[in-house]
Amino acid sequence: MRLLLVEDDNHVAAALSAVLTRHGFDVTYARNGEEALRALIPESDGFGVVLLDLGLPDQDGYEVCGKIRKRTSTPVIMVTARSDVRSRIHGLNLGADDYVVKPYDTGELLARIHAVSRRTAHEEAAQTAEGLLHLGPMRIELPTRQVSVDGSVVQLTRKEFDLLALLAQRPGVVFRREQIISEVWQTSWEGTGRTLEVHVASLRAKLRLPALIETVRGVGYRLVAPAT
């Protein structure tokens, strides 16, 4: 997932960028509101999440959030030391999707990023015409849980379909192994890693698209949309 980090403190930004990168994020760093808005101009849909610090040197963070929301639907998570309820309500009313108060636990921040990402993915899926996903020669019917390749139906198990649907709803996005296990198997990562690997191998074989699901070493998997 591409993530836009808006933070004026270089030390904080460097430390947080390192953590996010280790967890599979492609981080773009903006030091102020103007840089953040410029980053969103050419490819407003290129970022999965914006982490927006409110204490910016050039513009009020709330003002920046309002401008972001006018030009893109990319989820925004406000990060600030302002913990009072009125500030939180104001941020959410401006269009922020979540609000994290400093100092925060890194694990909680990662969980909130993924929670916002999941909500966005579900909303995008709901907006897909008739619940259909077309990826090259592959067609996925979400309501009927049917998959076909070049017009031929492919029989998948329940978990195989759940895994494929999760990846296919956000092509190109890297899903961490822990996240996939949590979403598909509704359990923790421990002891389930081999099960995930087996299901990925099975999908590659059944769909006869070996390059469809790419392994991102040390992180997880992503779906590479096949050519039509």
TrEMBL record:
Entry keyword Heme: no
Post-translational modification 4-aspartylphosphate, affected residues: 53
SMART domains per UniProt: REC (SM00448), Trans_reg_C (SM00862)
Pfam families listed in its UniProt record: Response_reg, Trans_reg_C
SUPFAM superfamilies: CheY-like
Keywords on record: DNA-binding, Phosphoprotein, Transcription, Transcription regulation
OmpR/PhoB-type domain mapped to chain residues: 130-225
Domain Response regulatory: 2-117
CDD domains named in the record: REC_OmpR, trans_reg_C
Ranges annotated as DNA-binding: 130-225
Family matches, as Gene3D superfamilies: 3.40.50.2300, 6.10.250.690, Winged helix-like DNA-binding domain superfamily/Winged helix DNA-binding domain (1.10.10.10)
UniProt cross-references to PANTHER family, sorted A to Z: REGULATOR OF RPOS (PTHR48111), SENSORY TRANSDUCTION PROTEIN REGX3 (PTHR48111:SF72)
Protein name: Sensory transduction protein RegX3
Organism phylogeny: Bacteria, Bacillati, Actinomycetota, Actinomycetes, Kitasatosporales
